[in-house]
Every structure is written in structure tokens, then in C-alpha cells.
Amino acid sequence: MIFASDLDRTLIYSKKAIGEAFEASELIPVELYQGEHISFMSPETARLLAELSKTALFVPVTTRTIEQYERIFYIRETFKPQYAVTSNGGNVLVNGVPDPDWQLHVNRALESSEEAGKVIEAFDRISSPDWVKSYRHSDSLFYSIILDREKMPLDQVEDFRKELAGMKWNVSVQGRKMYLVPDGVSKGAGLLYVKEQVGASRIAASGDSLLDESLLQAADYAIVPRHGEIYASYMEAGLYTFTERDGMGAAEDLIAKIAEWFALPPVDVVSPAEKTD
Fold it and tell me: Where's the Sucrose phosphatase-like domain (predicted)?
């Protein structure tokens, strides 16, 4: 069995995202950056995850680059994940080392999408210093853009989203970040590769952003925090199961629900992808 989970705003939270029910002083620091703890996990989340990890393989799945993922010292040192999917699926780490076979697969998959240089040229046509602060080509796979969300021109971004679809890239906006990601790179594909490597029979997954949809659709059971892009897009569609709480409380809810699901006998289940058929 595999428990595959997104990290930011799913299992771990910044001070701004923890929610009103939690005080940072009561939380477990999980990420160190430039000498400061910037992400946290609740003690109950840590306890539940430790219990679940005794019976299921915990696979962190994140849009973070390898370098950014490695900053999350608590998960690396406490849970010692054998597998992790980083770079939005662009890298699969095996005991912290990129899997070369997966890298070859991703390089072939990227051939079906427009080259990165033309994508950023298209973005530059709508970009302005008024709302775009900086961007980087993360792991030479996708673009991560820091922006002023309140000043972002929504109509232009939606038109750009349609243009990118024709280039076989997609857009995700999460807080103050925008991601431009080629179709050949996905969390779900990375997770299915891990499933094949370990011979797992069942997958439960969680995530909050539209970049997590492929991850959720690759799972037999999926649960989504009551916040973020997916909740905003599908709260009334009946496609996903949502946690009872938002903020950091969602992390506790989703692990508890997944532990309950794993305790049930295997049955024929319908994945989120099949619900849309």
C-alpha cells in the first residue's frame, strides 16, 4: 500500500497558511531556509503519519525542486522516505538519488510539448513588472513565477492558459506563485512509476492544487483539503472527497481518513478519473 501526498498546504504549512486554530509555537518545525523555520506540521499530523507509515509506504509528492524538497529536514530525517516524487513528477528519488530510468522517460515525454523558450516568450507578452516579480526555470523542467496575486490580470491569464494548452503546457496559480508545466511532467505519472517499482496493490493520495489532479486520479482513494485550487474548482461537483477542516487541520483529517480506508478490506473502487467517464 502507498500513501502519496503533496506537501505544501497539504501536510506542511507556512505560518500564513496554518489557520486560526493553531499557534506556530505549538507546532513542529519541518523546513529550514536561510536560518529560519518556514514550514510546520502539527504534532497530531506527525503522530498520525508515523502510525500510517508502519503499514503503508509514505511517498512525498511535490512540485518543489530537489533542492527545495531537501530543505524539509523533518520528513527526510524522521520518515526517511524510500521514494519521493519531486519537480512536479520530473524526478523520482530513490533513497534521495534521482532514478536515471525515470529521467530518460521524462526526457522522451517532454518531446511532445513545445520547447520551454517559446513558452516563456509567450508569457512575456502578458508579463509586467506590476504583477510579475521573478521567475525561474526549475530543474530545467517547468517555470516557477513569483507574482502579486491581487494585480494579476485574470482575463489575460485565462487567455494565456488556452494558448498554452495548444502548446501542451498548463498553468497553475497557488498563492503568490504561478507554475507553467509541460504535459509530459506530472505527479501522477511519477507515482505510477513508483507503484510499479514496489508492486503496490493500493494507493491513497492527497493534494490541494490543480497540479495534484494527476496524483489524485492515479489513486484508488483520494482526499482533498478543504482549501486550495481543487476545492475552489470542484467543491460542488462531487468529484472528490474533502476534509472536514481547512488549514492545518485538514492534514490531520486526511491522514485519519486514509488510515480508515486502508483498514477496510480491498474492494472494487472507483478512482476520480473513472468518475468523470
Answer: 47-224
